[in-house]
Amino acid sequence: MKIVLAAALVAVAGQAQALSCLRADVARTFGWASDAQEHYVIMLGAFTFSPPAEDEADINNRQSVRLPATFSGDYLGADGFVAAPTLDLTLGFECFGPWCGSIENNGDTLAFVEQTADGYVLNVDPCFSTVFAPNDANVQSVLSCMRGTGCEEQAF
After folding, report:
1. Residue range 67-81, pLDDT digits in tens
2. Which of 62, 134, 137, 146 has the fewest CB atoms lying closer than 10 Å?
3. Residue 83: which CATH number?
């Protein structure tokens, strides 16, 4: 009986540490960024950076990392996406316990990047609430939101 109870407690403790995220949605993030006091720029292109060294000190309590990066690609303006010069920025990979945000190094990404007094910052959390696949559906959704012709969140 004690073994069964111990096993049940371990199972419950493991479930308590599960990461719970809303499904990523470009329209929801667009609304959030539009309502924020901070200023966000929507970028479509490649973020290039040197990945951090793996720190295996405590895999269940990983630390967030900030890295210098370069962006090349397009910015979203009133007339749609336009080519822009290469931009230096900071990437912040946020961690919640063992889960960390990530993006593909030098791979195309649709991202909501904060413009701060110190430059541009892309914070990527484990729920990927600010970065999206650059597929047609996501690009069309963000264009529609920008034009004001519809910005409907996906149903759960």
Report:
1. 999 999 999 998 899
2. 137
3. 2.40.50
